Amino acid sequence: MTTYQFPPELVLPPLREKTVYTIASGDLRLSANSAGWSTQQQLEADFAAAVNRFGFEVHRAHGVDPLTRHGFIDSQRAGMDVFRNIPADAPLVVVDAVWQYSHHVLAGLRSHQGPILVVANWAGDFPGLVGLLNLTGSLTKANVGYSALWSKDFTDAWAVEKVGEWLETGVILHDLSHVRDLRELPDNEETRLGRALARQLTTEKAIIGVFDEGCMGMYNAIIDDELLNPLGIYKERLSQSALLAEMRTVSDAEAQSVRTWLDNAGFTFHFGADDAADLTAEQVHEQCKMYVAAVRIADDFGADAIGIQYQQGLKDMVPASDLVEGLLNNVSRPPVLSRDGSHELYEGCALPHFNEVDEGVAVDALVTNRIWTAMGLDPATTLHDIRWGDDYDGEFVWVFEISGSVPASHNGGYDKSHGLRQPAVFFPKGGSTLSGTSKPGEIVWSRVFIMDNELHVDLGRGHAVELPEEETQRRLNATDKQWPIMHAVLHGVSRDQLMARHKANHVQVVYAPTAEIADNAFAAKAAFFRELGVHVHLCGDVAL
Length: 544
Prior knowledge:
Blueprint: E1 19-23, H1 30-52, E2 57-60, H2 76-83, E3 92-96, H3 103-111, E4 116-121, H4 128-141, E5 147-151, H5 157-169, E6 179-181, H6 189-204, E7 206-211, H7 225-228, E8 233-238, H8 240-247, H9 252-264, E9 268-269, H10 281-300, E10 305-308, H11 322-328, H12 359-374, E11 381-392, E12 395-401, E13 418-419, E14 441-451, E15 454-464, H13 469-477, E16 485-490, H14 495-501, E17 506-512, H15 515-532, E18 535-539
Parallel strand pairs: 1-2, 1-3, 3-4, 4-5, 7-8, 7-10, 9-13, 15-18
Antiparallel strand pairs: 6-18, 11-12, 11-17, 12-16, 14-15, 14-17, 15-16
């Protein structure tokens, strides 16, 4: 008779009465987790105090690792192990004070049966708000129910009331009255253009070159082929090791020509002598090689856009890819010749780059590039983190900030842009940013996301404002001063409405020269997405 070894049945601990269980999802990198641990501890204490007001206790479901000396869940396996000790029906809170890798906790949250709340502190020093938006966007894609809440310290009346609402009902309701589904579209030149460009995409088809998927745990940033292909968009799956190999074939003279072009355009690099702490000419030289290599690989595969993962793995081999990404998204950029030197690649146009291989950004950037180009507008577009924000002069002004680069035209040109070393805590081998303050002007903002197993897009209008230099510097110092910043005002969308609705850590922005032209381009973009079969949602005050 054969004897089989059956696995032991997992028995979860019993649910504690009037107890809220908390977990902390963190980064993969020890340096980042160590840097943010004290801020995380303060947020957990603030949130626990709010919960205690209602006669509930807080039980932290995992402790501090004696080796790493922080209490973050720092891997998918660690997250699975933590959930083995959480009652399946417990009220569960994910407390985010830092950037977090959503897949560290996604397995446990998918199967959790109790109410889920994601909270973050309203602060810019660490990207907890960005982490919250990534996790909630990932949960939306995964069809997992949740609530979300944010507060400076969870002592304000609004946040305390919302904590009580969740403890009583298991749900927090936010005002989403700024969102409405697109109904009818006017029949005009702009909407006809959008529909025609969409039909061209579905028939002639486009390729996005993906240099390794799944950057930094962003589950929401991966769009399955079954949703992507009906749009006429297909993936070319590339490896960042191929990018490194191609960099070795780029000559020093070719890299120097890129650097010379930037110098002649008036771009300023802030160099220092210490490679471990400062930006050096050698780091930029390597980035110039990466730029040439990326364009050549894109041309090899006929890619219409590319995305470099840019952190894990690559950061330990070469300087950051940020300078490369900003250059690619600008029409005016250093020329790259074919390997035999016979012709310029992607001459006279941007090669859209979807930073951090966010495929929602890839779809958006392709659509934006084609509409803005067809309308004779500057198609330079970029994503930003929804990092933080604060009131200024009677209105709420967002800090939109991406970790390294924007197209130079967003800053007003290369002569108004500059390069600083990427922080060593994230990028041990350094590399230049393409930084600056985004110029004032009209913008269209958007986000492509997955909800109910289908593609959706939120579209809105806004404008970038110019703030005094001291206020700009205050905001940079409160976040990451090395990174490019946009002072953004969204039309008809409040702070809490955006946080409650937005389904990603990233928002896509593009400029238009006037409000009228921005409205026209907005209509074309809505028609483009509608023609593709994407669910279109209008956010705030828009002309449609």
